[in-house]
From TrEMBL:
<protein>
    <submittedName>
        <fullName>Fe-S oxidoreductase</fullName>
    </submittedName>
</protein>
<dbReference type="GO" id="GO:0016491">
    <property type="term" value="F:oxidoreductase activity"/>
</dbReference>
<feature type="domain" description="Cysteine-rich">
    <location>
        <begin position="3"/>
        <end position="82"/>
    </location>
</feature>
<dbReference type="Pfam" id="PF02754">
    <property type="entry name" value="CCG"/>
</dbReference>
<dbReference type="InterPro" id="IPR004017">
    <property type="entry name" value="Cys_rich_dom"/>
</dbReference>
<feature type="domain" description="Cysteine-rich">
    <location>
        <begin position="134"/>
        <end position="218"/>
    </location>
</feature>
<dbReference type="GO" id="GO:0005829">
    <property type="term" value="C:cytosol"/>
</dbReference>
Amino acid sequence: MRIALFVTCLADTMFPEAAKATVRLLERLGHEVVFPQDQTCCGQMHINTGYPDDALRLVRRHVRAFAPYDVVVAPSGSCVGSVRHQHAMVARGAGDERLASRAEEVARRTYELSELLVDVLGVTDVGAFYTHRVTYQPTCHSLRMIRVGDKPLRLLRQVRGLDLVELPQAEQCCGFGGTFAVKNADTSTAMLADKMRHVLSTRADVCTAGDASCLMHIGGGLSRLRVGVRTVHLAEILASTEPTGDPAERARTGGVTA
């Protein structure tokens, strides 16, 4: 299958390993991944903060970039949620019904990574190997907007070597919410403190999720506590495989090869 990668702003500028891991994983499963060069921001932050005119230009560009492809994947439930639930709305708000229809067509072919793997490709065991104790944070947009359900957990349960532990109060928001964390910093910090307490209670050494934005928020807080717990995107875990080579290489990679 030929799959277009919708990289997202955060993955492109701050967390490229999530995007690279998505490509490695899908290519390992036998699929061709292409990167439409014209893509840019999907416009979610413009829509959410009240700049519909700026968002409209980005929606047009997104539709133009991804319209030629039958399948689009993104390592982000948040951005996929925007494509599905906001793009056509923005176009209709501007009176552009043709763009709205084209946006809906692209949205129907756009998937978050775990959705693509489980619902479209029909796989839960992707051949991953990851020797860590891991807890999973279901991000708000993936949980409530695009409703990925237990798909990420079904994938993680098939990863060899991985010790998956349940996160208490998993469905509670981590407190990021884009500009919410800036405009309501005290509330955001309090929510983050609750989330970190629950993560630490699992004694996991890795917290994973399908959105780099939430992992950035949780990981930033955990790094300041200096507790040794890392945040790792779901795609990076699924792309990891058992290492080959000498024991020194195995020790260097921590038991996994990306």
